[in-house]
Design goal:
The complex is a heterodimer of chains A (397) and B (352).
Chain A lengths: L2 E8 L4 H16 L6 E7 L4 H12 L3 E7 L2 E3 L3 E2 L3 E8 L2 E9 L5 H9 L11 E8 L6 H12 L3 E7 L10 E4 L2 E4 L1 E9 L4 E6 L2 E2 L4 E7 L2 E5 L4 H15 L10 H10 L2 E4 L4 E4 L11 E2 L9 E6 L2 H19 L4 E9 H7 L3 H12 L4 E6 L2 E4 L7 E2 L2 E8 L1
Helix pairs in contact in A: 1-2, 3-4, 7-9
Chain B lengths: L2 E3 H12 L1 H14 L7 E3 H12 L3 H10 L2 H86 L5 H32 L7 E3 L1 H18 L2 E7 L6 E3 L1 H18 L4 E12 L2 E10 L6 H4 L19 H11 L3 E7 L3 E9 L4
Parallel strand pairs in B: 4-6
Antiparallel strand pairs in B: 1-2, 3-5, 6-7, 7-9, 8-9
Helix pairs in contact in B: 1-2, 1-4, 2-3, 3-4, 5-6, 5-7, 6-7, 7-8, 8-10
Amino acid sequence: MATKFGTAIAKGENSVKVGEEVAKNAMEKIGSSKVDFSIVFASSKYDYQAVVNGVRKVTGNASLIGCSTAGEFNEKKVEKESVACGVISSDKHKFFNGFGTGLREDEIVTLKEATAGLPSTVEGYPYLSAIILVDGLAGKGEESVLAAVSALGPNVKFSGGAAADDLKFKETYVFSNEQVASDSVGISLVASKIPVAIGVKHGHAPISPPLTVTKAEGNIVHEIDGQSPYEVWKKYARENAKKLGIDVDTMSEAEAIATFFTRYEAGLLTGTEYKIRWLGGTTTTDGPISFTCAIPEGTVLRVMESPKKAQIASARKAAEIAVDACKGVKLAGAVVFDCVCRAVILGDDFSKAVDGIKDVLGGIPLIGFETYGEIAMEIGQLSGFHNTTSVVLLFPE
Amino acid sequence: MAEINIESLVSLLRQSVGIEAAEKFINEAIEEVRLPRRGFYTEAEFRNICEVLKKKGGYVKIAATVASRSAYRAIYYQEIIAKEKKEKEDLARWSDILEQKVEERTKQLKETQAQLIQSAKMATIGQLGAGVAHELNNPIGGILGYAQFILQKLSKPDVVPKDFKACKQYIQYIEKEAKRCKATVESLLSFSRKPTASLVGLDITQVIEKTLSIIRHQLELQNIKLTTDYEPELPSISGNVNQLQQAFTNIIINAQHAMPKGGELNIRVSTKTKRKKKNIEINFKDTGCGIAKEDLEKVFEPFFTTKQDWKSVGIGLSITCQIIKEHKGTITAESDVGKGTVFTITLPVSSG
């Protein structure tokens, strides 16, 4: 037996039944009653615990990881207010789950808890990777990944995402096996005979000079170059925004401001590339701006633009990078972590980005969700949290 | 004692805080532990630097904690070396691509420039039209007249050998005039042709004469007296006939426009030696209206013109300047308002 990967998407009023239905449909695709691992992405419309119970009932309590979302998709469709499920049956990969809570208070303790029961090596399965899902509103995206690598050792690569709540910015949830909780981290250690592959890419470009964060606390930035961050952002985005029909000087609605900060995110120059930082949840013009992870004082940022064409192209590129990393191995399926910001920027064109990924992957099953942050960290890297980026995780057969 | 490369820590940290902040944080930490900035530090020194970084809290603290563990370092350093190698390769590849793009763009610009020069030349031909028509009309008139004489002679019922002799003479005249027409048309065609890129050894006076063959009549029509003074046995220069013809035509047409009520144009060619280098110097001296001092330095700028009518869009002299520069020569202008202008071109003598 190789690796079989099946996906399904379902909608409905009864969360347990939706969970059961989506798992059943996914299992039918692989033509097997044996499931080793399941992935569940559920809109905030659903009772998460009920969905998880429904899925586990059908999969025979197979290992499960999942989270709340801001949009769901598989190889067939891109949806809102739905539940997406992926199931894997494999003798090439083994899955081990962990779960930790209290992320806001102490990420080190949370990740220690989440990784405590995970093996450091698995005989016969030399390649280790981890899928990590974190509370998307805890502001601890980067910390969680680093705490995870600190706990699991340097030979593990990571992919994953930050849970979302359909842009309500109230509470996000992570699922691991039967557990469902906010302020938490779920982790699935994947031990493989053939390594999984990860591709990551964004489509942003800088439109400002380097700007230094002069006053910050955690993920809240109070001053940039000694000025109000909003004023600084307005200054550099004004002309570009005008072309998109956004008048930065008259914005007052919270939604318009949130959209503005989604279109004009921050970029950290990391070498020849930029890492994107989303000013997620910033909805006022007179106070500080908030990020989805910590921004230490002294950090140098650029205001980034996000042209639609580049956003669509970057999804395809992420898939190409992952495929290249597979070095010709036959693929079983893909998990895609794609930022909700991209969906906001692209609007109806978001499906084109998913189409680009599908096109590159040649029609293999895929499951994905719209995140509040993406995680991708190869071995040897020491930063794995991204925003407005596409992350593609490929499972070889 | 094993030493640790601080750049590896910079590389690790820059992934999460960016390249500028990573440098800044590490430099501050090194300063705080009172160490000089070096490439390598001992294990103990490195640990102290990491301890200072940890004070930043958040993920900088975690990153510094992880980076200071020897079990991680071995893996990270290998990866960093591999990553930096890849980045260097990427940069080299991008540099190649950039070079290629610059080359392509330069090629496109050159093509556009060549098109502009060609368009300007065709516009010049339009301006030369009246003169050329006259240049052709005179011999054609002669041809017609001689043809009519022949017809007359041979139409008589009593054609005698003397008539045949006269007809032969007329036919010789016709041949001569037809050759003159042919030469004019050939000059015009040769002038309008797109120039080739190659430079050849040439006699500059022949280029000037070729230019004058299509413009002389125009000057005569405008009552401009043309005189030439060529130094005997001039050395050859390396150049492109077609381009030089265009350069000279532009100057001569400019002189013509400066003398709407007639005047004099003198073209003088001589050799000059400057810093042990021998040049050909060509002076175009007219007795026209002259150019104001404030305009004189702008005359070689593209689209600068003092003419208020259709006659000029202001690219003739800039094209001339460009052609002369391509021939490694120089062009200058001196003028007295109301008295006239002298354009001086110098071209290096062929080394061969």
